[in-house]
């Protein structure tokens, strides 16, 4: 029996180049809700960003945000993982010192940035869709640090990640989209966040189906009864997933005979 569906967004629900959720998903979510089946967005995106994307059903779903650092259900924060302020400040200074790299600091309702290039702010607001606050000194932000991200337009790779090994094991990098590297507190991820949501909804993990496509979805392994990887997703996830699919909406229709 399936009682909870959790899906990644970029590269999973929204395929390459897409910027909106497939409209066909919204009536499915309502139909599932009527059947007693929950749905959760499970993403590296911020909470307000996800609410915008899921506007037609925004109050009917759960949110696993910031790669698992923030879990919200019906406006209530179930879990908020934070990064030690001193360590976070050191990390952000190092990101800013990297040529071609921009920093992003996540709060609950906005993200903060100290841009080197104004085009980066335009990218955050108009392309990513983030609620964004520009500051003179990102290290002086008073709100607790939920997640810290590095953005490099030309892409991130293992060589770049190796520049930040001094922050291990307290901070763990999570690579989602090709230009982003997120840093989370050790022990924090989409899998542990899914556990929090399941506990709140009294759903057993074997009653949960999750969908993902990239390395930041690897923590879902063992936390969902069935994990679907996008067939063209990251090889490491495809190799360890229970099943593969090319279309989340169609897969949901098949699972529930809708």
What does this structure look like?
About 30% of the residues lie in helices and about 25% in strands. It is α/β, with parallel strands linked by helices. The radius of gyration is 18 Å and the shape is globular. The chain has an 8-stranded mixed beta sheet, sandwiched between helices.
Structure keywords:
single chain, 258 residues, alpha/beta, six-stranded mixed sheet, 8 helices, 14 strands
Q: How is the main sheet built?
A: 8 strands, mixed
Strand order of the largest sheet: 5-4-3-2-1-12-13-14
Query: Could you say which overall geometry the principal axes of the C-alpha atoms support?
Result: globular
Uncertain residue segments: none
The overall pLDDT average reads 95
Count up the helices.
8
- What helical percentage do the residues reach? 25-40%
Give the SSE order as H and E letters: EHEHEEEHEEHEEHEEHEEHEH
Number of strands: 14
Concise overview:
The chain is α/β, with parallel strands linked by helices and 258 residues long. The protein is 28% helix and 24% strand. A hairpin with a 4-residue loop joins strand 10 and strand 11 (180-185).
Blueprint (SSEs and pairs):
Blueprint: E1 4-7, H1 25-34, E2 38-42, H2 47-53, E3 62-65, E4 70-73, E5 76-80, H3 85-97, E6 102-106, E7 111-113, H4 118-128, E8 132-134, E9 147-151, H5 158-161, E10 171-175, E11 180-185, H6 190-201, E12 208-212, E13 226-230, H7 235-240, E14 243-245, H8 248-256
Parallel strand pairs: 1-2, 1-12, 2-3, 7-8, 12-13, 13-14
Antiparallel strand pairs: 3-4, 4-5, 6-7, 6-9, 9-11, 10-11
């Amino acid at each position: 029996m399936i009682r909870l569906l959790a899906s990644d967004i970029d590269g999973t629900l929204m395929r390459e180049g897409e910027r909106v959720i497939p409209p066909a998903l919204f009536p499915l979510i309502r139909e599932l809700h009527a059947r007693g089946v929950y749905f959760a967005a499970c993403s590296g995106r911020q909470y307000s960003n996800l609410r915008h994307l899921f506007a037609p059903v925004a109050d009917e779903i759960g949110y696993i945000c910031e790669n698992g650092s923030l879990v919200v259900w019906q406006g209530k924060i179930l879990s908020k993982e934070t990064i030690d302020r001193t360590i976070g400040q050191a990390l952000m200074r190092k990101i800013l010192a990297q040529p071609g790299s921009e920093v992003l600091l996540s709060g609950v309702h906005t993200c903060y940035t100290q841009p080197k290039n104004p085009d980066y702010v335009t990218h955050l607001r108009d392309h990513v869709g983030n609620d964004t606050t520009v500051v003179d000194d990102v290290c002086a932000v008073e709100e607790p640090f939920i997640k810290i991200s590095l953005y490099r337009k030309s892409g991130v790779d293992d060589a770049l990640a190796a520049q930040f090994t001094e922050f291990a094991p307290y901070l763990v990098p999570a690579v989602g989209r090709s230009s982003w590297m997120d840093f989370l507190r050790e022990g924090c991820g989409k899998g542990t966040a899914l556990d929090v949501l399941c506990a709140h909804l009294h759903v057993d993990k074997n009653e949960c189906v999750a969908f993902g496509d990239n390395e930041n979805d690897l923590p879902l392994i063992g936390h969902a009864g069935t994990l679907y990887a996008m067939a063209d997703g990251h090889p490491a996830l495809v190799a360890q997933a229970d099943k593969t699919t090319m279309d989340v909406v169609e897969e949901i229709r098949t699972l529930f005979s809708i």
